[in-house]
Amino acid sequence: MAMPISSSSVARIATKPFDGLVRSASRSCSIGKIHSDRRTRIPSIRADLITEPDAFEVGRFVGSYGFMNITSYSSFQSGGFSNANVFDEFSPGYSSEDMERLRVQDVGEGRVKIRLYEGRVIQGPLKGTRVIFKVYPGRRAGGVEADMMAANELGTHVFLQSDSEKLCPNLQFLLGGFETKMGEQWLACRNDGKYSAADYGKSVSEANSKDTAKGENFWNPFTKEQKMKRRRIFVIKLLNGAMNGLAYMHDHDRLHQSLGPSSVVLNTMVEKDASYLVPKLRDLSFSVDIGYSSLGAAQSTLSEGLWRRASAAGAFTPLEKRAYGIADDIYEAGLFFAYLAFIPFCEAGIMDSISLQRLFENTFQLDLQAVREYCLADDHLLEAVKFLDLGDGAGWELLQAMLNPDYRQRPIAEAVLNHRFMSLVNLL
After folding, report:
1. Confidence class for position 216, pLDDT limits 50, 70, 90
2. Out of 40, 107, 170, 191, which residue is the most buried by the measure of CB atoms under 10 Å away?
3. Distance from first CA to last CA of the chain, Å, rounded?
């Protein structure tokens, strides 16, 4: 087990402020750079970020993860869908075993390994604020990809936070960070919750298994129905919050490009507290600038895969590429919706996100009516079917639209938010 870094060790580890990463985010054309045109100008990066190492106290180590490609099966390719990639968790303690279910861009197997620490601000007006540190390795350990990802995440947060009067409540907030002598980049985000949607799915599915083993679902049908009602409300609110964050990003010319159960942080997993739930999108290291001026510029290394898929789908002009990028995010959001519709309503081990994606893409070629018929024949999946059947099949309708094989037919995030399925939370 890794030893936590005490506050006294910060001075030894972090010996210089954030200038290096700020300069990197500003100058490199291969990452989501901060533009100087009037629409995207950032008056002062350092004016709003805490960049002094001594302003932070670093607490316990909570986990680490890296990236790898899954090549054991071929995903459904019609329409130019995202490559099948997942998060690979290397250390326990942060998030859950479901972290591998996050779909991300290809950066090379095992090359970038990110560490996570708890901490807090100990100086200035934000003194006492809890933070989560996301630590990108130096170039020697992580290669150029690590620097690119860190700079891209920094630049995206700074851009999205540039208007303090219109901050989105469903995006994680970057407070600052610092760079070490070894070249590590420490990003400090406000700690608005230690759980993820992946944690929620895992916890609830395990609870389902325990209830079945104890026979509670058989002996207390009323209790079960009340529990399912609370769960449906919680899941719809979770999806709504995630989509609101995505809509904000798209409205501000940014794609997420790694949306999944581990990239949505929650402030609670207690279903009866759904009214207090505030989901927040995180993990913006693969975000892509889709402003028209950027679409005509040199391609970022981190977005090469996206634009290859766009070309394969027939999207060549800036307008078509922008539409494709937004639709690509919506597709990943659709897979996230599928995860929320199935995992919390099943027992542990019955379904996981990779199996679910195979079922949708490979087995049934995105024919969700066929998926529904298949699930109806399996008692373990009936609660998921009932959930998507709400509102005369409104859940299936929305899911089919988000996973439409033709990217041109997928709804934008705002349309997802306005779909009748989302309003069912007020009727349950």
Report:
1. low
2. 107
3. 45
